[in-house]
Amino acid sequence: MADPVTFARKLRREQTLPERRFWALILSWRDAGLHWRRQAPIGPYVVDFVCRSRKLVVEIDGDTHYSDAGVAHDAQRTAYLEGRGHRVLRFTNADVMQRGEGAFAVLMEVFGEPGNES
Fold first, then answer.
1. Is 0.85 surpassed by the pTM of this model?
2. Where are the transmembrane segments (predicted)?
C-alpha cells in the first residue's frame, strides 16, 4: 500500500457521494472560517474529515464498517485517534444521504451556529 499521504490524495480525488454530501453540509462552517481537511492522514490512518483546530474527526461509514472485522478495525482506529486527543464522530452513509439534517444538528451541538463557533 502507498504511504498515507499518497493514499489520502487518491481518496480525495475519488470521494464517495456521501463524502461529497457531507462536504456540502459543512459548507457554512467552512465559509465562516473553520478549516476542514478531507481524507487527511493522522498517524497510520487516513480520516474522512478533520477539523484540526477543534481536534474533531468525522468518519462517514459504509457497509464494510459493520462486519466483525470492520467494527474491530474502527475500534482500534478510534482508540488511536482519541489517544491523541481527537474526538471521533461517525455517521453512516444513510445518515448523511437521507438524514443530513440530523448530521447537521449533531455538528451544531459541537460547533454552535455557523459563524458563531464556541
1. no
2. none
